[in-house]
Amino acid sequence: MEKRTIGILFGGASSEHDVSLMSATSVLENIDREKYDVIMVGITRDGRWMRYTGDVKKLIDHSWEEDSGNLPAFLSPDRSVHGLVTVRDGQMEITRLDAVFPVMHGRFAEDGSMQGLCDLAGIPCVGPGVCSSAICMDKEYTHIVLDAAGIKTSDWFCVRKGEVPSLLDLEVKIAVKLGGFPVFVKPCNAGSSVGVSKVKTSDDLEEAMMLAFQHDQKILIERAMVGKEVEVAVMGNDSPEASVHVGEIVPKLEFYDYNSKYYDDTADLYLPARISDEETQLIRQTAVKAFKALGCRGLARVDFFLLPDGSCVLNEPNTLPGFTKISMYPKLFIDSGLSYPEIIDRLITLAIEAQ
Ligand SMILES: Nc1ncnc2c1ncn2[C@@H]1O[C@H](COP(=O)(O)OP(=O)(O)O)[C@@H](O)[C@H]1O
Ligand SMILES: [Mg+2]
């Protein structure tokens, strides 16, 4: 088979820049180089694009940014280019790409913007398309679509910057709509638990809202769910399938926060989750139903709370989930029998097939 040229994008101007560096390092170290010619494009935290040809090991500590071989580069929206434009000695050099894999998370990566750029360019992009990515990124719209599809989520309401009710009104709303404290306060558009707080009393509400507003103009206040936190991986286009097993997260602190996700071991992971077969099937089926309702294609990791009565509540879909070898998405499919390079290969193939 002819070798394909794949653009791997990493970094990005999002609060999950560092997470992307970890995910991309794994993908770059494991992608099948017999099948794919890899073109690396790094995006700095302030949004500068560079073609990178250095050592993959230089991603993690950000030293790739200083590499002397870096050249300005950008994805052209021009379909006749169908790829990357690199500026070398004032001259434009074109590299045709068969597909793009944005190994990036959060804003400007997972929210439809990168997918839109690839659409304009006519280049297949790994993961869901523009509309689905945008809906899954925005926790308010995710809730609305899932509610309409009859998939249970936790009770919620949104607060917009500039329209913040008084503390008293908020307390009433929390009591009436969410059954009182504790609640979770989160930015509608973020990820990796950035800006998320668990709030136990109204005394801590304002601070949590201010933190969430640092990341978005719109925040979500949600009923705190008590149950097991479980995650399942879905892959496919027209006939998506869930991983055989479900993974379980047991945060040792109040919740699964940024540090426990990436830096310390304040969360235990169980694969398979310590749940019954019926519960596993319920999670798998609900994940596929949500995947379809949200218009996803390619991949998504769908996160749930499994309640003590055996029912499930969908927490959130992640359309470009963490992708290190020890991240839940790849782990779930490795557990289902695929190798990590095969997972990457399948996702790229699905993107090309969806075009
Ligand atoms: N409604 C909730 N009830 C209980 N725990 C929650 C709730 N919402 C969030 N959490 C906890 O906070 C973590 C991060 O919240 P999440 O909505 O997944 O945001 P992010 O998109 O940043 O991952 C979850 O993994 C979970 O541990
Ligand atoms: Mg999450």
TrEMBL record:
Limits of the ATP-grasp domain: 143-349
Reaction catalysis annotation: 2 D-alanine + ATP = D-alanyl-D-alanine + ADP + phosphate + H(+)
EC number: 6.3.2.4
InterPro entries: ATP-grasp, ATP_grasp_subdomain_1, D-Ala_lig_Van_CS, D_ala_D_ala, Dala_Dala_lig_C, Dala_Dala_lig_N, PreATP-grasp_dom_sf
Pathway(s) this gene product operates in, as recorded in its UniProt entry: Cell wall biogenesis; peptidoglycan biosynthesis
Pfam families, sorted: Dala_Dala_lig_C, Dala_Dala_lig_N
Domain of life of the native organism: Bacteria
Group of enzyme by EC: ligase
NCBIfam families: D_ala_D_alaTIGR, PRK01966.1-4
Family the UniProt entry places it in: Belongs to the D-alanine--D-alanine ligase family.
UniProt name for this protein: D-alanine--D-alanine ligase
